[in-house]
Structure formats: C-alpha cells, structure tokens
Amino acid sequence: TVDMRVDYLAPGRGKYFIARAETLRLGRKGCTMRMTMVNDDDKPIATAIASYAY
C-alpha cells in the first residue's frame, strides 16, 4: 500500500456490513481503488481510497 485514506461517516451499527470496491486506475506498476462500506440499511458508514504498488 502506497497511500490509504479512510473516512468514517457513521457508527458501525447493523446486523451485517457490505464492502464494495471499484478500480479507478489500473497501471503497469500500481492501481488506485475506491471502497465503500454500508450497513444492512444500505447506509454508507465508511469510504476509503487507496493506491497500491505491485
């Protein structure tokens, strides 16, 4: 991981949580991803963006 930022939007309340990720940029030596975590009411509770080197 080259860089990671997490923004907590709400308390993690609920029976279960779902994390979704999407690729924003995919290069030869690294990539950038955006993640969102929602609770069982589909309310966003956290977001993140990260850059990875490989």
Task: Provide structural commentary.
By secondary structure, this protein is mainly β. The chain is 0% helix and 67% strand. It has no helices and 4 strands. It has strands spanning 3-8, 17-26, 30-39, 44-53. A 4-stranded antiparallel beta sheet has the order 1-4-3-2, with no helix packed on it. The radius of gyration is 13 Å and the shape is elongated.
Strands, helices and their partners?
Blueprint: E1 3-8, E2 17-26, E3 30-39, E4 44-53
Antiparallel strand pairs: 1-4, 2-3, 3-4
Main attributes?
54 residues; 4 strands; single chain; mainly beta
Bin the helical content. under 10%
Low-pLDDT segments? none
Count all strands and give the number. Answer: 4
Biggest sheet statistics: 4 strands, antiparallel
General shape: elongated
Distance between the amino and carboxyl termini: 9 Å
Give a quick precis of the structure.
Helices cover 0% and strands 67% of the residues. With 54 residues, the protein is mostly beta strands. Strands 1-4-3-2 form a 4-stranded antiparallel β-sheet, with no helix packed on it.
